[in-house]
Write a structure and sequence with these properties.
Layout: H1 2-7, H2 10-21, H3 37-41, E1 46-51, E2 54-55, E3 59-60, H4 67-77, E4 81-85, H5 97-101, E5 108-111, H6 117-124, E6 130-134, H7 141-153, E7 157-162, H8 165-173, E8 178-182, H9 194-199, E9 208-212, H10 218-227, E10 231-234, H11 236-239, H12 244-252
Parallel strand pairs: 1-4, 1-10, 4-5, 5-6, 6-7, 7-8, 8-9, 9-10
Antiparallel strand pairs: 2-3
């Protein structure tokens, strides 16, 4: 599945390489980036609410909901931060959604398949506070370190996503400090919170841990909170009913 997503990024990376040759890469955002990890840690069981128009497993979810409307609804319902899907082919996202959602004043995570330094440069042209990097999409810690450090040079934090302990080892070799555990099986696309529970004993006190995928009820929220996670990332469960504010209110009740 990740190889499929990576293949879809080849044209984007080629475009950025050509822009670099033409000296037309976008310039870095000059405004303030809201601290991502610090904001999560300042809230008990922080919720990163995701703007997600579609997915490979669900197809269209809520393409009629605008980024502005969803950002406002999430803010009213008590979201701590926003996750903004920008991948176009499979998730129907756009990079511009980050700028369109910044008005609510919440830190934003750019969620995409970022594997090349120029994608980090492009991320830096937006008001994103953080970028998602998926550990197993990198062949070595040095490749991951390069993108983490490049992000830091722009004031962008890196959320490094892992699926198992081998991924976590790679993330730590790259000095990652924000760890996101994804509960989704990439072969079947099914979710299982047991993955979060198996991984949490490896958590270090110096790290921020996020549980992602498969959280759709107050009971599941309490399950990952009790396990010891600092935050949860929720997307489909909030978007699929067409009323993100109501869904987030219910999840946080």
């Amino acid at each position: 599945m990740l190889n499929k997503f990576l293949a879809a990024k080849h044209a984007e990376i080629a475009r950025l390489v050509q822009q670099q040759k033409n000296d037309t890469l976008p310039t870095a955002y000059k405004g303030e980036r809201i601290p991502f990890a610090a904001t999560l840690c300042a809230n008990k069981m922080a919720c990163i609410a995701e703007y997600k128009r579609a997915s490979p497993s669900r197809g269209d979810i809520a393409p009629h909901l605008s980024p502005e409307d969803v950002a406002e609804q999430y803010a009213k319902a008590g979201a701590t931060a926003l996750s903004v899907l920008t991948e176009e082919k499979y998730f129907k996202g756009k990079l511009e959604f980050l700028k369109r959602m910044q008005f609510v004043g919440l830190p934003m995570l750019r969620k995409d398949f970022i594997v090349h330094p120029l994608q980090v440069v492009e991320t830096a042209s937006t008001p994103a506070s953080a970028q998602l990097l998926i550990a197993r999409m990198f062949n070595s810690p040095s490749e991951l370190i390069e993108l983490i450090e490049l992000g830091e040079s722009f004031g962008i934090e890196s959320v490094v996503e892992v699926f198992n302990h081998a991924d976590l080892v790679l993330a730590r070799l790259a000095n990652a400090t924000i760890i996101q555990v994804n509960n989704r099986n990439l072969a079947t696309l099914e979710t299982d919170l047991a993955i979060c529970e198996r991984m949490i004993p490896h958590r270090r006190t110096t790290e921020v841990w996020i549980a992602a995928s498969g959280i759709s009820s107050p009971e599941q929220r309490r399950q990952v909170e009790t396990a010891g996670y600092d935050a949860m990332l929720v997307g489909t469960a909030l978007m699929q009913g067409g009323d993100p504010q109501k869904a987030l209110n219910r999840l946080l009740e």
